[in-house]
Amino acid sequence: MWRNRAGRLITSPGGRSAAAPVAGALPALAFPEPSLWWFAYIALVPWLLLIRTAPTGRRAAVDGWLGGLGFMIAVHHWLIPSLHVFIVVLAALLGLLWAPWGWLVHSLLGSTTPAAGVDGASRARSPSRAGSRPPEEGGSAAPEPYGTGAEAGSLPEAGAETGTAAGAGARTRGGTRAAAEARGGTGPAPLAAAAAIAVVPAGWLMIELARSWEGLGGPWGLLGASQWEVSPALRLASAGGVWLVSLLVVAVNTALAVLIALPRARTAVLGGVLVCALATTAVWAWTPVPEETGRARIAIVQPGVIGGADSVERRFARGEELTRELAGQKLDLVVWGESSVGADLRERPDLAARLARLSRLVGAELLVNVDARRTDGKGGGGIFKSSVLVGPAGPTGDRYDKMRLVPFGEYIPARALLGWATSVGKAAREDRLRGTHPVVMDLADGGPRVGPLICFESAFPDMSRALVRRGADLLVAQSSTSSFQNSWAPAQHASLGALRAAESGRPMVHATLTGVSAVYGPDGGRVGGVLGTDRSAAAVYDVPLARGTTAYVRFGDWPLYGALAVLLALCALRGARRFRRTAPAPSAPPARTAHGSSGRPGR
């Protein structure tokens, strides 16, 4: 009974439109806070099977778009209190990135394109190939429901009428196809199904690349990031970044979908899975483990949630109080969270002096974060978010200005067009200004060189890679997710540090104002405990330092180039096959007969 209901669901456009967003939302459960990392390897299967049964490529693109909308809302649902209904508009626009992917999945695995291999040809649609005859005049062929394969291949046996030898051959071919359809549709060729294990993940990776652009929200919710606590996956990330992990996750989902829907392609798919497993194992075994060179004692100061009109001053005072408790612990660095200082230290020398006293007290420099308006001395300027290093004598002069800003949170893209978002949510009233280059800071007494990141910059793999290539020994992300305190956002943000540490082979400190604060070693494994969203405390961590260069730092985003090459190869192959099919056939010579013909009278 349930199979009949499911069949009716996918045969109606309304049912498909309702099912697609739900199927697209399932992968969100693999991310924190549920952190069902294993679920990522099966979460795409319902979506893939739904797209496969689409009656046309156009409908598959719609299913891809609606599924993408569901995915974006589910992964970013914690933004709803800030953006309200505008999140649906954004999700609908970003969901369009999945429309071509839906079409791609359908072209490779679609149940209505039998014998559609990598070239996408549907030989059954040609009556001459199937041995069928065109429908009688005045008649019509009624299409079967979605996913039955009838649209592409249930063809009549024309040989039964003609009685010729050609008709007999056609009858044989037609019977074979009818038997295949009795088993649920011919589907794609086994070779095409096996190729889908590489092509479908490649298409997904292009979506992740496109939406990783800062203007589209940045790389939050990359599928590979769901594996942040899985050691073998982190090892893969050190070889090819989060991109390589995403490829693996989508490849497993695709293989499962093919095995479920296309039993006759099982052998080819299992062969593809074996090749994928061997390649993954080889990369995992070849990737070197970071070599520890020493340790640094790093303290995180997390003042906790402090509200009210004078919250900026009281937060600063709470940070002072917690930092004083660190005296005598032989620290190398004390890290405060994002927006921990609410005024430009050049304009407020009293604040700079208080920070300098703290540095002398604990015997270490402080890395604070200033969120304030700053002038450039020429009457210009604006609001910057800056990481500022403060020593015993005051600010050392090392300062990093945030380069990548949060869309709508810190600036509004195309404000003239989208500025109305400020009237329906908590969008930025004024655009913050951005920095121009990354900075690596040198600590006194030969301590580790620090590469700072601010807020969601820790989501960008290329930024941490650039800092390590500039010589950073320690990555530090200063963050504040207090606006989303009781949601999945703090845990999701903290988990990104594990990926950045594994990719770069350098430890990562994720320090926040209100939690979750955490530290990760050079292999991405967690160091010590976490400071949750219910804590107002300071914690000290013995952080392992490492040397060496990971494959990701050395070679960069090579999985992206590999995925692009796969898609280009597919386009070239399909183009070549289409060109051969459309080439004019050579004209046949006139037939010779024993008794003559209208073209050649008999003797």
UniProtKB/TrEMBL annotation:
Gene3D superfamilies the record matches: Carbon-nitrogen hydrolase
Lineage: Bacteria, Bacillati, Actinomycetota, Actinomycetes, Kitasatosporales
UniProt EC number: 2.3.1.269
Region listing for Disordered, in residue ranges: 117-184, 582-603
PANTHER family: APOLIPOPROTEIN N-ACYLTRANSFERASE
Organism: Streptomyces katsurahamanus
Protein name: Apolipoprotein N-acyltransferase
Pathway per the UniProt entry: Protein modification; lipoprotein biosynthesis (N-acyl transfer)
Low complexity: compositionally biased ranges: 120-145, 156-184, 582-594
Pfam families according to UniProt: CN_hydrolase, LNT_N
Annotated InterPro entries: Apolipo_AcylTrfase, C-N_Hydrolase, C-N_Hydrolase_sf, LNT_N
Family (UniProt): Belongs to the CN hydrolase family. Apolipoprotein N-acyltransferase subfamily.
Compartment annotation: Cell membrane
